[in-house]
Amino acid sequence: MSLAGFLAAAALAQSPVTLDQAREQARANTQALVAAANRESADAAVMAARAPLLPQVTATAGAGAQYAGPQTFVQAVPSVDPSSGETTWSQVAIDVQPSSRTSFNASVQVQQVLYDASRWAAFAQAGAQAEAARGQEAEDRGAAELEGIRRFYELLKAQRTQLLLQERVKSSEELLERAKALFVAGRMKKEEEISAAVNLGTDRMALLRQDAAVSAAQANLAAWLARPATDQLVAQDPGTLSGEARLALSYDQALEQARGHRPQLQAYLALVKAARSGVDSSSAGYLPSFAAYGRYDRSGADTSPFFTDPTRQNAVSAGVSITWNAFSGFGTEAQVAQARAALRKAELTYAQAERDVGAELRRGLADLDALSKVAALSKSNADLARDGLTLATSRFQAGDTSTLQVRDAQVKLTQAEVSLLESRVDVEIARAALERSMGTLGAAP
C-alpha cells in the first residue's frame, strides 16, 4: 500500500467523539448499568412487599378416577351352633369383583389481610430502600459521567500536546536547515549545526513518547465508554478551553445546591427512612394481626350432578382470624433493639455524608479558584514566551546569536503552551467535579 493510501485508511479508521457524546455514553457504562440493575432489584422488592397486602386468590380444580381389580380377601366369619348356642369362627375366602369410581372437585379461596402492622412497615421500608437505590443510581451515573469527562479531556490534552510537539519538531527542522545554510556561508561554526541536529533528535523522541500517550488516552476513554479498545478516538474541541475560567459561586450557594440535588445525600436520607420503617416493622411484633377469608368448594363422585346441577354439591365457608404472638421469648425485643441500632447507624452515616459533601464543596471551590488563577498566569507566560521565541529567531537568522538561545526560547514556549493547556483542562475537570459535588452535573441549564 502506498503512503497516501495508508494515511487515507488511517483517517477513515479514526472515530471522532464530542464531549457531549462522551458524557452520554459514560452515563450508560458498566458502572452505571450495575447501579440501574440494583435499582430494578429494589423496585421488584417493593412489589414483593406489597403482594401480601393485596387479596390472595387461590383456585384449584381436579378430577380423578380409581379402579380396583378382582381381589380375594380372607375374613373370619362367625358360626353359631343351634343346639348349643356356641359361636365358632372360621376363615372364609371372599372374592370381590372389579370396581371403579371417579371424583371431581373445584374450589376458590380468597384471603385478605385486614390489619398487619409488620407487613405495612415492611412495605414502607422497601419503598424507602427503592428510593435509596434510585439515589445511588443517580450518584453512580454522575460519577461515571465525571470520569468520562476527565478521560475525554485527558485525550484532548494528549492530542493538543502532540500538536505542540509536532510544531516544535518542525521548528527544529527549520532551525537545522538555517544552521546548515549559515555554516556554508561561513557565518556560523559547525558546532551550531551539530547542536541543532541533536535538538531535532530530542524533539522527535519526545514526539514518539507523546504518540504513545495519545494511544493510552484513547484506550482509557474507549474502555470507559464501553467501546472497543482499538477505536482510534479523536476528541473534538468542545470550545471550552478558551472561555472564562472562573465560576462565580459562594460556598453557601454550593451547599444549598448540594442539599437539594446531590443524589448521595438523598440516598442516605432514604436509608434513614428505611431504618425507621424497620423499627416500626420490628415493633409490630407486639401487635395482633387480622385477616378475613372466604372459600367455595364443589365436589362430586360423578359427572352428574357435578356438571349438570349447579344447585347441588356446593359448600361455602367464611371467617375472620386473629393472630397474636403474646410472648416470643423476648425475640421481638431483640429485633426492636437491632432495628434501633440500624437506625442510629443510618442517621450517623447521613450526618457524616453531609459533612463530607461540605468538605468536598470547599475543596472544589478552592481548587477551581486556584486553577483559574493559574490558567490566567499561564496565558501571560505563553504570550511572553512566544514573543521571546520571535526575538531569538530573528537574531539567529541575522547571525547575531547561537542555536542555544533559539533552543532555549523554543523549549520555554513549548513548556508555557503545555502548561496553559494543562491548566485550562484542569479548570474544566475541576468545574465538572464541583458540579457533581452539587448534584447539578448533566442537569438542564
Q: Compute the gyration radius: what is it?
A: 42 Å
CATH top-level class: Mainly Alpha
CATH topology: Outer membrane efflux proteins (OEP)
Domain tally: 1
Give structural attributes:
elongated; Outer membrane efflux proteins (OEP); single chain; 445 residues; 63% helix; four-stranded antiparallel sheet; alpha+beta
Write structural notes for this entry.
The chain is an alpha+beta fold. It has a single domain (16-59, 116-287, 329-438), classed as Outer membrane efflux proteins (OEP) (Up-down Bundle). Helices cover 63% and strands 18% of the residues. The chain has ten helices and eight strands. It has a four-stranded antiparallel sheet with strand order 2-5-7-8. Strands 1-6 form a two-stranded parallel ribbon. Strands 3-4 form a two-stranded antiparallel ribbon. A hairpin with a 6-residue loop joins strand 3 and strand 4. Helix 2 (19-26) runs antiparallel to helix 4 (117-184), helix 3 packs antiparallel against helix 4 and helix 4 runs antiparallel to helix 5 (190-224). The longest helix has 68 residues, at 117-184. The protein is elongated and about 165 Å long. Mean pLDDT is 88; it is low at 1-12.
Q: Summarize this, please?
A:
The protein is α+β, with helices and mostly antiparallel strands and 445 residues long.
Q: What is the topology?
A:
Layout lengths: L2 H11 E4 L1 H8 L3 H21 L5 E13 L2 E10 L6 E10 L2 E17 L1 H68 L5 H35 L7 E4 L15 H11 L1 H21 L5 E12 L2 H4 L7 E10 L7 H67 L5 H36 L7
Helix pairs in contact: 2-4, 3-4, 4-5, 4-7, 4-10, 6-9, 7-9, 9-10
